[in-house]
Amino acid sequence: RLGWPGLVLEAALLKCAFSLRGLAGAARGVTAALERGSLEEARRRVGRDLVSRPAEELSAPHVASATVESVAENLTDSLVAPLLFFLIGGLPGAWAYRVVNTADAMWGYREGDLEYLGKAAARLDDALNWIPARLAAIGIVLSAFMSGAAAGRAVIGAWRTMWRDGGRTASPNAGWTMAAMAGALGVTLEKPGAYRLGSGPLPTARHIHRAVQVMFVASGLSVAVGLAVAALGR
Predict the structure, then answer these.
(1) For 127-143, how does the pLDDT look when each residue is reduced to its tens digit (9 = 90+)?
(2) Per-residue b/e over 194-231, b at no fewer than 16 CB within 10 Å?
(3) What is d(CA 122, CA 66) in angstroms, rounded to the nearest whole number?
(4) Measuring CA to CA, which residue among 179, 164, 80, 64 is closest to residue 130?
(5) How many angstroms separate the CA atoms of 195 and 69, rounded?
(6) 133 with 141: CB under 8 angstroms?
(7) pLDDT category of residue 117 using cuts at 50, 70 and 90
């Protein structure tokens, strides 16, 4: 054991497995473009940095929706899942998860020469994220008081929407965090032709800002719980 220097090194290496700062920065870039009225720039940013769906024809509300969806979904990939696998398997566990998640992002469900590798990566990523996604969704529910609505109503809305709409996406995991965020913000998140989560209007730029706030509070709660579990396990 290296004592405190070892703990500092371990914390630094674990932090590298997280990617919340880049996610928040990308979301804020879309927000700024929408607030300037630059829809073309907002489309370009959301398509380049946040989602894989075609963004060229998205309306401003659907650009905002795609951004909020990405913020919610990536709470799982960017923090909760790496933290959970760190608690289970230490740094090797956290980094093994990141390798699988990156492989899914690069090759998941592709056709051609990489078809079998891509499907394997995607299915393994789905399996590894099953529990973290639901924990992340609960974190969003508990953090819903930051959404700008009355705290109690926001938390209840997030909880009800999570259970009602969490299974409406093709992914077995993504819908849980997205539905919880939709309920927290009191909006509808929609991928045209694929799903509608929540009730209320489509989001605007201000809802992206609130979603980022909720994400950071949920992240703080997750880290606090993780530290408590780690301390009990020592």
Answers:
(1) 999 999 999 999 999 99
(2) ebebbeeebbbbebbebbbebbbbbbebbeebbeeeee
(3) 21
(4) 80
(5) 12
(6) no
(7) low
Number of Cβ within 10 Å of residue 132's Cβ equals 23
Report the amino acid identity of residue 219. S
Burial of 67 (0-12, 13-18, 19+ CB in 10 A): buried
Q: Comparing C-alpha atoms, which of 199, 205, 170, 216 is closest to residue 72? A: 216
Tokens of 212: 């980022």
Dist. CA 58–CA 219, nearest whole Å: 29
Helix (H) or strand (E) segment spanning residue 197:
strand 195-198
Which residue did the predictor score with more confidence, 99 or 211? 211
Over the stretch 182-204, which tens digit does the pLDDT of each residue have?
999 999 999 999 999 999 999 99
Q: How far is CA 130 from CA 24, 77, 101, 124, 174, in A?
A: 23, 11, 13, 10, 9
Say how far apart CA 234 and CA 77 lie, in whole Å.
26
Instruction: For the chain, count helices (H), then strands (E).
Output: 9, 2
Residue 144, Cβ density class (10 Å: 0-12 exposed, 13-18 middle, ≥19 buried): buried
Phi-psi region of 59 (alpha: psi -120 to 50; beta: other; left: phi over 0): beta
- Which residue do the tokens 């579990």 mark? 229
Between 100 and 108, where is the model more confident? 100
Instruction: Decide if pLDDT at 76 tops 80.
Output: yes
Please state, for a pLDDT cut of 70, what percent of the chain lies above it: 85
**Residue 144: half-sphere exposure toward Cβ, Cα within 13 Å:** 31
- pTM, two decimal places: 0.90
